[in-house]
Design goal:
- The chain has about 55 residues and is mostly helical.
- The chain is about 95% helix and about 0% strand.
Length: about 55
């Protein structure tokens, strides 16, 4: 069991996978934040348009 763990921690391929997973996660978080911001902006604009049309 010790040998398997040692091989696992010494393997370089696993580190690349973790790096790609972290980068992918950061990209997803950035996309979600951007879409949330755009959604808020669009909601505000439609509210202003509704108010202008109601007057």
């Amino acid at each position: 069991m010790k040998i398997l763990l040692k091989k696992f921690f010494m393997a370089e391929e696993g580190l690349e996978t973790v790096e790609y997973a972290i980068i992918s996660g950061l990209i997803v978080v950035a996309i979600i934040a951007t879409l949330t911001s755009i959604g808020t902006w669009v909601n505000t604009r439609f509210g202003q348009l509704l108010t202008a049309l109601s007057s």
